[in-house]
């Protein structure tokens, strides 16, 4: 197994095709003909077994506002593992590698919007219930700003010394 960290602009068309296939198999209810869900991430971790892409995690480097206080984050996008390779610790290893990179990069938090929290809880994330503001984007269209309370889907992991504060979360962009 080989894990590659790659900047988005360096990914080849062939690798994008592999990402599309993996993402669509892992998220069958959200199939898209492109390698991302809402927007291109800044960089990705790609996991290969020989030449087969078996896991993927996109990452956005962003500032968000939590109760009007800026926090630097790595936002996790489209973390997925091929069903044949699940339950082998691959997703946890990706989260560990991202945590290490975040510490070296002086990032305050890892941030994810999730359907299932168990993986993230096992890896040191905490769930939040908060009023959120974000830009509604779907299929390359902007539908304006959204303001909504989100419960049981926001997961954060503190990396830096700045603590999380209670209050509204402004994603200052699209929802991951």
From TrEMBL:
A Pfam family matched in the record: Acetyltransf_7
Domain N-acetyltransferase, residue spans: 6-153
An example Gene Ontology molecular-function term: acyltransferase activity, transferring groups other than amino-acyl groups
Full protein name: Acetyltransferase
């Amino acid at each position: 197994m080989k894990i590659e960290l790659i900047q988005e602009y360096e990914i080849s068309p062939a690798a994008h095709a592999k990402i599309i296939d993996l993402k669509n198999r892992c998220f069958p209810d959200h199939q898209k003909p492109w390698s991302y869900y809402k927007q291109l991430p800044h960089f990705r971790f790609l996991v290969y077994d020989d030449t087969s892409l078996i896991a993927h995690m996109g990452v956005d480097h962003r500032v968000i506002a939590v109760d009007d206080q800026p926090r630097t984050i790595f936002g996790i996008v489209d973390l997925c593992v091929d069903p044949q390779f699940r339950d082998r610790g691959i997703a946890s290893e990706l989260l560990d590698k991202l945590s290490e990179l975040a510490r070296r990069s002086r990032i305050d938090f890892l941030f994810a919007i999730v359907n299932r929290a168990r993986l993230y809880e096992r890896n040191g994330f905490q769930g939040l219930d908060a009023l959120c503001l974000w830009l509604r984007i779907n299929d390359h269209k902007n539908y304006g700003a959204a303001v909504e309370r989100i419960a049981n889907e926001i997961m954060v992991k503190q990396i830096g010394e700045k603590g999380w504060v209670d209050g509204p979360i402004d994603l200052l962009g699209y929802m991951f």
